[in-house]
Design a protein that fits this description.
This protein is mainly α and about 325 residues long. The longest helix is centred in the N-terminal third of the chain and has 30 residues.
């Protein structure tokens, strides 16, 4: 036993010593004979390590193949495109949502619990009379923006509404973003105003998603959206940094103009100058409208939303005029 153990021990030491000497000779620039000796012996020493690495690579490859196979089976098992689902290594999976009647919910841009019934009883004639210099500047800024809009769109209220919503969805996002950053910097709550402004932005975006189904924009109208949104976003961003009370007041007046535009839209529908087509399916689900609703019903609920946004922004501006912060007054969450 001592003899056999000694032989194995010394043979291992000899192999290691020989390989070390061979490596030293290579580094020292020895002959090709020494190089061949090293190349023959070196792989033997690293055999176990390489086999472990290879085994790990095979396991990783096998795991990826299993994921791909499972994904293919789920995606193509039933042959129904609606049931195709992506299997993620991270375990993230989009849940299936159903309506109250059990039918499948087909919208991914919003969920059933985000739908609501618009309050059509809101006062549409409210107006904040500008008294201070800041109010007057906000009022006439909005009035000056209306002139080129009237000139470009004239009575094409479908396209006009689409353009209006691409702009109206910006202030809520900008205000919510800046309040979010302010809350992080100062380690303070926002009073719910971050969520309220983001709700406003999302609601305006859903207006756009609705009117996209009604008015198909032309290429130059899409190009105009790029230009107007780029200018307005940066201008409003700077305006909100300088004076939040001015920014909210301007949005309040902007919403007053939106109410006026949708009122004119309704008049054209009543006159028959614009066809009162069935309401888009996305609008029916978002505002919980009856199945037989028309475009007029959609314009009515959108106009009511704009009136709520008018009230929220004028209210926010009034808070600033009183020398207070928005967080000191709870935000009207859910007040579309």
């Amino acid at each position: 036993m001592m003899y056999r153990g000694g032989v194995r021990l010394f043979s291992t030491l000899t192999a290691r010593t020989a390989s070390t000497e061979a490596a030293a000779r290579i580094l020292a620039g020895q002959t090709n004979r020494h190089l061949s000796t090293f190349l023959v012996r070196a792989p033997v020493l690293g055999l176990r390590n390489r086999s472990t690495l290879a085994l790990g690579g095979e396991k990783e490859q096998q795991r990826e193949e299993n994921v791909q196979t499972t994904g293919a089976a789920v995606a193509g098992g039933s042959g129904n495109n609606d049931e195709k689902r992506i299997v993620s290594y991270w375990g993230v999976e989009a849940p299936k949502v159903n309506k109250d009647d059990g039918s499948e919910w087909k919208w991914s841009c919003f969920r059933p619990w985000e739908a609501y019934e618009a309050d059509l009883s809101i006062d549409l004639k409210k107006h904040h009379a500008p008294t201070t210099f800041s109010d007057k500047m906000a009022f006439w800024t909005v009035k000056s923006l209306r002139w080129p809009t009237d000139l470009f769109f004239q009575r094409r209220y479908g396209c006009r509404a689409m353009m209006l919503e691409t702009v109206a969805a910006v202030p809520g996002m900008v205000g919510g973003m800046l309040l979010h950053c302010k809350s992080l910097r100062r380690f303070e709550h926002s009073g719910g105003w971050i969520k309220a402004l983001l709700e406003e932005a999302e609601n305006e975006r859903m207006h756009l998603m609705t009117f996209m189904e009604v008015a198909k924009p032309k290429w130059y109208e899409r190009a105009l959206v790029f230009a107007v949104q780029g200018v307005f976003f940066n201008a409003y961003f700077l305006g909100y940094l300088i004076s939040p009370k001015f920014a909210h007041r301007m949005v309040g007046y902007l919403e007053e103009e939106a109410i006026h535009s949708y009122t004119e839209f309704l008049k054209e529908l009543d006159k028959g100058n614009i066809e009162n087509v069935p309401a888009p399916a996305i609008a029916t689900d978002y505002w919980r409208l009856p199945p037989n609703s028309t475009l007029k019903d959609v314009v009515l609920v959108v106009r009511a939303d704009e009136a709520h946004h008018r009230d929220v922004n004028h209210y926010a501006s009034d808070i600033h005029y009183q020398g207070r912060q928005l967080r000191e007054s709870p935000a009207p969450l859910g007040y579309h």
